[in-house]
Design brief:
Elements (H helix, E strand, L loop, with lengths): L10 E2 L1 H28 L8 H4 L5 H5 L8 E2 L13 E3 L6 E3 L1 H7 L1 H16 L10 H4 L16 H10 L8 H4 L4 H4 L11 H4 L5 H13 L6 H20 L18 H30 L2
Parallel strand pairs: 1-2
Antiparallel strand pairs: 2-4, 3-4
Helix pairs in contact: 1-12, 5-13, 11-12, 11-13, 12-13
Length: 292
């Protein structure tokens, strides 16, 4: 294990970082309890499972606490954390710290791409005109649906809603699931290459992706920030699906009827709140990335 020759500052005492770690475990366990209980008996959920299947991160990922880059953990050399990847000893002490330089060296291209997307999104004005129609566009004129859940308005009613609106999706990872018939109806053609130029802070999926970026930044991100992004993503997912064409009443979710003026107003109000919260978390992640 390589040595760190300069003291990382500030430091957390053993009791301080054990306390933060324990609080993190309890919070993560509470957030993932229902998912773990369902998985144990083979049950699925059309709303909550998305954060574990689409992003492919297991509850254990959320449970692992890191202090973040630039802190040293006193007396950590005598704990099992000494065997964790990306932890290095602080020379002349019993402390460990994150090998931020090593992580940045190995994943420099990934970190640069994340930073490019986050900076561009943070600097752009928010748009609130999509009304959650991406889920509708994913099943437009198609009998094959992404979820085994009945449609509120049936197939023809769902198609009529799409046809009566201009699709204004700005998020490629939603757009790429549009049916062929819906793709041409979007106001702009999206691609992976154009993602930094199109991503905007009003988009619910851009807010959900902060969880993905937090995981990819690994030990650089404090555990508390990771869970903040996960909590936001989970709340966004609920609104995302309530505004979808699916009838989720059997799961206890009332619809946001975006095909009506009242439903649009309800959706945009939630969208604005999520956008403000996501911008704060986005800035925190950019601060993490900028710390060298």
């Amino acid at each position: 294990m390589p040595s760190v020759h300069e003291l990382a500052s500030p430091a957390l005492t053993l009791s301080e970082w054990h306390g933060r770690e324990q609080a993190h475990h309890e919070r993560a366990d509470a957030l993932t309890r229902e998912r773990r209980q369902r998985a144990a008996i083979g049950q699925t959920h059309p709303v909550d499972d998305f954060l574990y299947t689409y992003y492919s991160y297991k509850p254990a990922v959320l449970r692992r606490w890191h202090p973040g880059d630039g802190l040293r953990l006193e007396a950590a050399r005598y704990t099992d954390r000494a065997n964790w990847r990306w932890y290095v000893p602080v020379s002349g002490t019993d402390a460990l710290t994150i090998d931020g330089g090593g992580f940045r060296s190995k994943y420099g291209a990934l970190i640069a791409n994340i930073a490019r997307i986050l900076r561009a999104t943070a600097a752009r004005s928010a748009s609130f005109r999509c009304f959650g129609l991406h889920e509708w566009a994913m099943i437009y004129r198609d009998e094959e649906h992404r979820h085994d859940v009945p449609l509120r308005l049936g197939q023809s009613g769902t198609d009529e809603v799409v046809e009566s609106h201009e699709l204004g999706c700005t998020h490629f990872d939603a757009f790429r699931f549009f049916t062929p018939a819906a793709t041409s109806r979007n106001s702009v053609e999206l691609s992976r290459q154009s993602q930094p130029e199109r991503e905007q802070p009003g988009c619910l999926h851009a807010g959900m992706d902060l969880y993905k970026w937090s995981v990819k930044l690994g030990p650089l991100v404090p555990g508390e920030l990771l869970l903040d992004t996960f909590e936001l993503a989970r709340e966004i997912r609920v609104v995302d699906m309530r505004a979808s064409p699916y009838d989720l009443s059997d799961w206890g979710f009332s619809p946001i009827k975006i095909e009506t003026a009242q439903g649009k107003a309800e959706y945009v109000a939630a969208q604005r709140d999520f956008s403000a919260r996501a911008q704060q978390l986005r800035e925190e992640l950019l601060t993490v990335i900028a710390r060298a």
